[in-house]
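Case study.
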Amino acid sequence: MAKIVVDGVEYEVNPDNNLLQECLSQGLDLPYFCWHPCMGSVGACRQCAVKQYRDEEDKDGILVMACMTAASDGAIISIEDSQAKDMRERVIESLMISHPHDCPVCEEGGECHLQDMTLMSGHNYRRYDKKKVTHRNQYLGPFINHEMNRCITCYRCVRFYDDYAGGTDLAAQAAHHHVYFGRHQDGVLENEFSGNLVEVCPTGVFTDKVFSDHYTRKWDLQSAPSVCTGCAVGCNTTPGERYRSLRRIVNRYNSEVNGYFLCDRGRFGFDYVNSDERLQAASKRVGGGLQAFDEAALSGLLTEFADGEMIGIGSPRASNESNFALRCLVGEQNFYSGLADDEQEATQLVLEMARDQAFHSPSIREIESCDAVVVLGEDVTNTAPRVALALRQAVRNRSLDLAADCNIPAWQDAAVRELAQNERSPLALLSSYASRLDDVASDCVIDSPAALAQQGFAIASELSNQAAAAESDHGDTVKRIAQQLKAAKRPLIIAGTSAGSIALIQAAANIARALHESRGAAIDLCLLVPEVNTLGVSLLANPDNRLGSALSRLAAGEVKKAVVLENDLYRRAPRAAVDSALAKAEQLLVIDQFETATTDQADIVLPSTAFSEHEATYVNYEGRAQLSFQVHRNYRGARPGWRWLMEDADGNVEDLINRCAEEATAFAKLDDLLPAAGDFVASMKIPRQSHRYSGRTAMRSNVNVHEPKQPIDDQSVLAFSMEGIPASKDARLMGAAWSPGWNSNQSISKFQDEVNGELKQGDTGTLLLERSGSGQWYSAPAQAATPAGELQVAPAYQIFGSDELSARSPTIRQRMTDAYVSIAPKDAERLGLKQGDAVSLNGNGSLATACIRTRIKPGTAAVYCGDGQINPHEIGDSVALTKSDVAGERSLSGLIVSDLYEEDY
Amino acid sequence: MSEMSNESTMVNNVIASSATRARRLNAEEIAEIEHEMELYPDKRAVGLEALKIVQKHQGWVSDESLLAIASYLDIPVADLEGVATFFNLVYRRPVGRKVILFCNSVSCWIMGCDSIKEQIEHRLGIDFGETSEDGDFTLVPVPCLGDCDRAPVMMVGDDLHRNLTPEKIDQIFEQYRKQLTADG
Ligand code: SF4
Ligand code: SF4
Ligand code: FES
Ligand code: FES
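After joint prediction, the assembly is written out as follows.
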């Protein structure tokens, strides 16, 4: 700790930080642009000038940039000094000299850091009346708008996009008064985190295109704290609604999980919520079609249906509450997780590791602090995107060490990067095809999943002689990786269920166990699962209840009724198995948001609410349970899954959460997530609408001139209203961050205990699992031979397309690609396949597009199933490919890979 | 190298593949770029030299050339564009057969370069950044050619012309006209 004096007041600060950061941590207001809490300082904008004095005698002082000056012990500074103020006022004037006067039509308006800073710095009259520099804007794809005239050249965009997120197609161009931030030509921004530009850019240069198409000011949005359901990371989000439609999603800070950034699947994959294709009314099958129930029939529905034994199939994309309610309805012995059988087996293994004392499951923030990483067969960019962004920061730990050796503080971003050049902490990627992280990897081993598992076992046996020996084709690499792990301060092993290989997870566990043995401490083992609540539903279901056996019980007529909760079984098992089970089921009740192949078979279809329409909890890959509040109502007939399933239709979700905590093993701590009654002023509700929420009396007057009563929220502590006590201090209940003078997302520093710290009274979620197990070593399985002429299958995934719900989003659809099969040029030649050819898989009618890549092992085929275009459970460990003469309607457009093979060049 | 260049010339992105495609660098360009690569530790650092080499051979740097260089050096094309557009004398648009580097900095300004420029405009019909209709000349401003004691100064192609007067301009361009016509 150090003491500094700011305008005569003494503060205790952290000397490892800079003055700007520490002033903000103390709650002081000091304008800035180029500094960003997690990207450090470059001193580019000169906006954060303060006066610094040599000592108490020094009355003159010098102007320094707060973001470029260490908060060293004894520093005496003034923010209020008139020269400093004057400098800041002039700097902002010059930065925005060509900035247009277009706030009223700018999407940033009302949450614009530039607006806030003009006010804060006192620049409220513009003197420049000459011709302004103008620019041509670019088409940047379906996510982002470009309006370069608004740029103040703070360089944050390229620092985020290139330096932080590893993007390569956005750069600063030209010089002096016509500096330009854009691509080399119009085109889609390729990086998977491009949406963060919207929040990183302090002005309206990069704005959310989807939001812009149905724009609403921030203060007019109804919002609540929510959790992304795009994958198992569970990033925290703030969705905003108006006029009964969900308008956008922005990041919500959680120090342990997503920090300041989301991936583009999470940010843009929400607009299926507004889709007219959503199921709208409870209906039953009459003849061939569905007919809506009338209200009266509806009330007796469940009582009637629930009579007698039935099977309940849950879902990894449904909340704990809905799954639990289904379990209560059908009884534990009849409740199934709804995971595919092989995935269930793999997930159980993940859960076993999650209870093993030898391991620790790292949060995103913890991943960033690891200094040697091995990724075994998991394409994190496409299965858990936020993890990929964290890994890009993890490889920078080496540069921070180098900087520390040279006495360069970590926040001196440009200096640290300049010093390190291409020096990085080791990141070994063992993968079946080239990935989007290869550019920062120290080693890329490309091989089939089975062979990768062998390498994993070999690394473990290199580290410990207790670990079973394994053959390796990459001996030197294996040795090097083992060495790097051994030498690291905080090694990390990543694997997951997506590669469909138990052996890969076991190999990862062996490596971590070997490290644990020599270190004694718990080793970071990050095992990823694909969906938002894969772990939650797996904890609720009996591990021996396999989907396959549920289907056979139905097919055999043992049980005649089934309830399927938000699950399309045709994505979880071979078509024939589902067909025969559903054909035999006498009564099938399916709850879902959309029509699926499964609802098509149902006798009763009940529409369920989307993530923003209900309060729910989910368990992320770490075993972290998080609470997501309802943002807005569903104005059609959808209800939360659990509500259809509980006898008591008036039930309250928070009661259900309490009940789940009491009854379900492993969920004992779930109720910690609920806000306690005593947390509120005079037990007033927290408004979801801002105090500036406008037009309430008029917004529906095109329908009816009477102002409707605000909907009552009988479920939670939040209100669908602007009345109540705003969560201005309790960040846990705060949807959109706002603080006086800070209308942009930069206001978050007002809610953090210190910059980049936890939220005041914040809640990072609750880790559900206790570790007590002591685990075991695994040995490498015998390598199965691939039938002659066939290729070994490696499942492939796409950030846009592999998640069932976001794939329904019209925005995401614009970036999706059809099912493809990636093969090496050699195999393509042997099979007579050309880039883009239609390929038949196993001759069973499954069609994919040939995608010939240079960086895939000959003999393997990476199969991407598209959005339900191919049933992955009908493809074995190996596949026979033949050219199909079905005219290819499908294409690879939308695919972004760096190693596409182009014969003709 | 040949294998790498083969791989790296692939367009990075299928979405972009319908757009501009890289042209092939010719053998001389490649030889010169290879030579520069020996002199720098990092391929990224060769970017500027490579742009100059290509410009020397092609007269300017087209989108196709930009892609070709980026692929050859295996660096992001956006970064290379950043370099190319940073320098005024890397031409990203076609230029005339002769580029006029016209100094309009302090000394030349004091010595009346404005009237010289007027004369050029009058004679060739071009302003800064423009190319004459016959494709012979492009006029580009430069800040100081380092020959202030003989201001006003300009370069046409590789030739330096000093102590300019409006009359001299007519003579000079008359000569170039002849020369260019003779060259075809
Ligand atoms: S585009 Fe935005 S982030 Fe980038 S330099 Fe301009 S103002 Fe800063
Ligand atoms: S999809 Fe996953 S990584 Fe992306 S924002 Fe959502 S939870 Fe985070
Ligand atoms: S914030 Fe300090 S110079 Fe930009
Ligand atoms: S100012 Fe023109 S040559 Fe120096």
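Observations recorded in class. Chain B has a mean pLDDT of 88. The two ends of chain B are 39 Å apart (CA to CA). We will return to this complex in the next lecture.
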